[in-house]
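**Sequence, structure tokens**
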Amino acid sequence: MCGRFVRYSPISELIDEFSVDEPSFDLNPNYNVSPGQTIPVVINDGKKRLELCKWGFIPFWSKDPKIGQKMINARAETVAEKPSFKRAFFSSRILIPANGFYEWKKEGKGKTPFFIHLKSKEILGFAGLLSVWTDPEGKQLSTCTIVTTDANSLLKKVHNRMPVILSKDDQDLWLDRDNKDRDRLTSVLRPYAPDKMEFLPVSTLVNSPSHNSPDCIIPA
């Protein structure tokens, strides 16, 4: 799964990386993005832009928003057919900008946190899905999930799953809401090239979701 990630790039870098217009909001760096937090996502609903979204997918039909706490990830293997995600897979695909993510490796009786990122330090675009949920009072809430796949050969040393990281070409395909080709869309939901990635152990300070500072990604 992917239960924590990092996004420290400022708005200006996200604009350049994803070719979007300047949004009406600003962002502070977040070195410990946790489920339930509001995050920037890239959507294309006729215009490619940045929007804010709560991490934790609530299907449009759900009566209980708490379900979002259990739906921070969607498995690539079943995302096109699972009732919770099927509609969004075919109509509301998004990108989730990140600079890296965390995973914990079991070692003895404890777990060691690792920060995983590209060697090039480039901004990542996770494959994601969007759901706009309406509460009983009629207020709308944008929520999202990160699509995950099997870990590549490098990251299997730490964990068996990883977020789907899309290449530049695959990002455009994923964001194209006119594309309903299930086979073509699922073909991009694969492990990222291991030779382009690296991981390093970091401080257990990151274990606390409330700890948000650059020391989260400093090598231990």
User: Anything to note?
Assistant: Residues 5-217 form a domain with the hypothetical protein yedk fold fold (CATH 3.90.1680.10). The chain has one domain: 5-217.
